[in-house]
Amino acid sequence: MVKLRLKRCGRKQRAIYRIVAIDVRSRREGKAFWKVGFYDPVKNQTYLNIPIILYFLEKGAQPTGTVHDISKKAGVFMNLRLNHQSKFN
């Protein structure tokens, strides 16, 4: 199973996180399938590659709680709903 989760990067006391698609059984710093964005909690900056995130969500990837909250603020799930509605019309 694939999860969308945070991978820690950066220095001590100055962490930034990559948002990656990774196998559930892998460690936090393990090899990721795909890098789909990053999150900097200090500067409160976020970059998301929304088409890639939508692709993984449609294939059944599960986001962790934090990634879900970050994606929700960016409006990713609104795009997911629009894609599902356009497929059925």
UniProtKB/TrEMBL annotation:
Gene3D superfamilies xref list: 3.30.1320.10
GO-annotated cellular components: chloroplast; mitochondrion; small ribosomal subunit
PROSITE patterns: RIBOSOMAL_S16
Keyword set includes Iron: no
Acetylation among keywords: no
GO biological process, one term: mitochondrial translation
Primary location recorded for the protein, binned into one broad class: plastid
Localization terms from the record: Plastid, Chloroplast
Keyword field: Chloroplast, Plastid, Ribonucleoprotein, Ribosomal protein
GO molecular function: structural constituent of ribosome
Protein family: Belongs to the bacterial ribosomal protein bS16 family.
Name this polypeptide is given: Small ribosomal subunit protein bS16c
Record gene name: rps16
